[in-house]
Design a protein that fits this description.
Layout: E1 12-21, E2 32-33, E3 38-47, E4 53-56, E5 60-61, H1 66-73, H2 75-82, E6 85-87, E7 99-100, H3 111-135, H4 147-162
Parallel strand pairs: 1-6, 6-7
Antiparallel strand pairs: 1-3, 2-3, 3-4, 3-5
């Protein structure tokens, strides 16, 4: 809710999840992401339209789906109550009325669907900058600490980024 201050009806945010790789063993199954084929922690990022990171979530086990993580953190509900539009990737399909995701690709997709997907990708592109800023920190390239500390590290990085520290 704090990240959404200053935003009102008609504004939009970019939401996406990313996997922070961890050094885990095979026995740590909840941390294994089938999609990325590695162990890690799922972190949700909310970014402003200009790419400024507004909020980083606490870390969840890597096998947590992005939509499940967004619901667990209350992102979708918070944006719904404030009538803020969310631009997201296909992982968030079915999230609700305020979430806009691209259409599935088909061989013979109508031109207006293709145009919508291109426009949405153009609007979401600056939000990818928030992920790039997060992942540039060397400490997150392969985390070797306890998985419980990853969320704390991400929050500390967000605080440093907010203060203008570039690492």
């Amino acid at each position: 809710h704090e990240a959404l201050t200053g935003l009102g009806e008609g504004d939009f945010v970019i939401v996406d999840g990313t996997l922070i790789a961890t050094d885990r063993i095979k026995a740590d199954e909840p941390y294994y992401s089938q999609k990325h084929k590695q162990h890690g922690m799922n972190v949700q990022v909310m970014a402003a339209p200009d790419g400024t990171p507004l909020w980083f979530s606490r870390a969840l086990p890597g096998r947590t789906h992005d939509l499940t993580a967004a619901r667990a953190h209350g992102i979708i509900q918070a944006c719904l109550t404030r009538q803020i539009l969310i631009l997201a990737d296909r992982a968030y399909q079915g999230a609700g009325a305020t979430v806009r995701t691209p259409y599935y690709r088909h061989r013979e997709q109508p031109e207006h669907y293709q145009q919508f997907n291109r426009d949405q990708a153009r609007l979401r592109a600056p939000g990818e900058r928030a992920f790039a800023q997060l992942k540039q920190w060397r400490i997150l390239r392969r985390t070797r600490c306890s998985t419980r500390r990853v969320g704390t590290i991400v929050q500390a990085i967000h605080t440093l980024m907010t203060c203008g520290y570039s690492g």
